[in-house]
Amino acid sequence: MNIKELEKETNEGVHTLPSEERRKFLTMGLAVTGVFLGGTVLSLVSVKNARGGARVDTSIIPVEGKYPYPKHYSMVMRQNHCVDCEKCMDACRETNHVPKGHGAWRTMIQERITTIDGVEKQEFRPILCNHCNRPPCVRVCPTKATTKDPETGIVIMDYDKCIGCKTCMAACPYNARYFSHDKYAIDKCNFCLDTRLKKGEKETACAAACPADVRVFGDLKDTSSEIYAVLHEPDNKIWVLRPETGALPNVFYTNA
């Protein structure tokens, strides 16, 4: 397949980048799968992965460029490493004082899948707030209780401003929010911003507690970080949940 054919197949719907620029990336084996952060950071994936099986959605993978925050925290889930031990959930509850009935700030989806070899197996998919770059919850909040932290890009809650209207819960594509009766406000994961990151810790409680190395957490602006290496390894097939929402999530998945 030639460059023009690849360009048509892998860049359909992307109109903000000139064709010649897209061709340059294709000659390097990279397909443009979207535009990240309003066009300041491109979204690239290897051509081989962009044309992969229909079961895996091509993700929005950031590359070096202009980020709007001093730090840009994200997480990668190596989902087929997960053994459903729930140590991540226990660590989250203990660290962030989350009511047990709410399953901490994260949930776990179980799925029966069939591998390309025809083998059926159980796979566990951790779900949490995706700290989107275009978060619907921020857009719909009538009191500005939900915002993007200007230092980290993490989606945070101001409990004093929250009136508990649950509009953000309805808008969230990931069902990652719940109403806290203790706080009388909406609550959610904040990547342990106040309980760990501001105290000098480098990982979230769930990432630190995981015995199977499922979660990779870090700052995407740090090119020496593990998360940067995972997201930019050409042979890694990286994807996100519900890319069609346009929320541009910062939680990525890989079948390691």
Task: Describe the model.
The protein is an alpha+beta fold and 256 residues long. It has 2 domains: 3-50, no CATH class; 73-254, Alpha-Beta Plaits. It is 20% helix and 24% strand. It contains 8 helices and 12 strands. The strands form 5 sheets. It has a 4-stranded mixed sheet. β1 and β2 (41-46) form a beta hairpin. α1 crosses α2 (19-27).
Question: Topology, pairings included?
Answer:
Blueprint: H1 3-10, H2 19-27, E1 30-36, E2 41-46, H3 47-50, E3 73-78, H4 87-96, E4 106-114, E5 120-128, H5 136-140, E6 146-148, E7 155-157, H6 167-171, E8 177-180, E9 185-188, H7 205-209, E10 215-219, H8 226-231, E11 238-239, E12 251-254
Parallel strand pairs: 3-12
Antiparallel strand pairs: 1-2, 3-10, 4-5, 6-7, 8-9, 11-12
Radius of gyration: 19 Å
Stretches where pLDDT is under 50 for at least 5 consecutive residues are 1-17, 32-65
Tertiary shape: globular
Number of strands: 12
Strand order of the largest sheet: 10-3-12-11
Total helix count? 8
Approximate helicity band: 10-25%
CATH class membership of the largest domain: Alpha Beta
In the CATH scheme, what's the topology name of the largest domain?
Answer: Alpha-Beta Plaits
Overall average pLDDT? 75
Q: Report the sheet-strand fraction.
A: 15-25%
Q: In CATH terms, what is the architecture of the largest domain?
A: 2-Layer Sandwich
Most strands sheet = 4 strands, mixed
Write down the secondary-structure element order.
HHEEHEHEEHEEHEEHEHEE
Query: How far from one another are the termini?
Result: 28 Å
Provide the number of structural domains. Answer: 2
SS class: alpha+beta
